[in-house]
Amino acid sequence: MGDTIPDEMTAIGYDAPGKPEVLRPERLPVPRPEGGQVLIAVSHAGVNRPDVIQRQGFYPPPPGASPIPGLEISGTVVAIGPDAPPELLNQPVCALVTGGGYAQYCLAQASHCLHIPESMSMAEAAAIPETLFTVWHNVFERGWASEGETLLVHGGTSGIGTMATMLGKAFGLTVVTTCGSEEKCAASREVGADLAINYKTRDFVEHVRQFTDGKGADIVLDMVSGDYVQRNLDCLSDDGRHVTIAVLGGMSAQINMAKLMSKRHTLTGSTLRARPDAFKALLADEIHNHAWPLFEDGTIRPVMDEVFPLEQAAQAHARMEAGDHIGKIVLEAEI
Asked: Where in the numbering of this chain does the Enoyl reductase (ER) domain appear (predicted)?
């Protein structure tokens, strides 16, 4: 690697799972790119719910992945593996990674990188890949969303919720969200939601039915699971699709299978992190062709919450767990 790349870097680690305060900076060797990998000097790293769950000890990295938290980064390519495209060197990119984002340097597959346009800040770029890849795959590929359909999204002001709202609107969907306060409902409407329901004061099942004149939503993007599943199905239309991407409300659900049959519902779900590199490369390619132009021309910009210095990863996690954030929390890795 080049003379300008140091042997060591600052990264965020922890000795044992626990509360946010277990996170602390440590010094680690700078990794070396192999095969189709690139080494990125990290400018910013996105903070996501899976990072929190990993820190709590419930979501270990897949085999071969970095134990350092962080699933999305922005920065500059400073070294390339022998099989990576040489033209990526010195380019500003954001990337989906399987771990290692909370650090000054991070490896990424060249095929999982997206070029950052001049109009986009590094902080914004780091706030995009994880939610964009997740929403694109689950809403449009697994959920078969098509123009004119209604999408129900829980957690409307989360990173996933804001991304699903903006992408849904860009591709001609009617978007309904649920949020936990009137302030968050207002923020969700500002992002583009056609209807934002305060789930603490209103029954979202009844409200979705009313809003759709009794038809129901065509797709629900479910991050809650647990006892929400049957309620989601109750406000899904005939032939509706229920797509689960997280189980924040519990892993088990009891559902009425007779109702499911009569309404011809489809239940599916996925996690992205452990999927093979080749799958993610195909997904990145599709996103590059169909969705990325909307980010390049500024049609979609990520909703940003707060930027913390890398060393304050613990405070960033505490903010996410408090649940008051609107949009994306990111870390800034000054080198």
From this structure: 18-331
**Could you read off the pLDDT of 85-124 as tens digits, one per residue?**
999 999 999 999 999 999 999 999 999 999 999 999 999 9
**Distance from C-alpha of 232 to C-alpha of 227, rounded to nearest angstrom:** 9
Q: What is the pLDDT of residue 4?
A: 87
pLDDT tens digit sequence for 293-304: 999 999 999 999
Cα–Cα distance measured from residue 42 to residue 310, given in angstroms and rounded to the nearest whole number: 10
Predicted model pTM: 0.96
Residue 3 to residue 38: CA distance in whole angstroms: 16
Q: Identify whether the C-beta of residue 100 lies closer than 8 Å to the C-beta of residue 107.
A: yes
Radius of gyration in angstroms for the set of CA atoms belonging to the chain, rounded to a whole number: 20
CATH match of 131-269 with 3.40.50.880 = no
Kindly list the domain boundaries of the chain, sorted by start residue.
8-128+273-332, 131-269
39 pLDDT band (50/70/90 cuts)? very high
Q: What are phi and psi of 113, to 5 degrees?
A: -100, 150
Q: At what angle do helices 182-191 and 159-170 cross, to 10 degrees?
A: 40
Helix (H), strand (E) counts: the chain:
11, 15
Q: Which CATH class is domain 8-128+273-332?
A: alpha beta
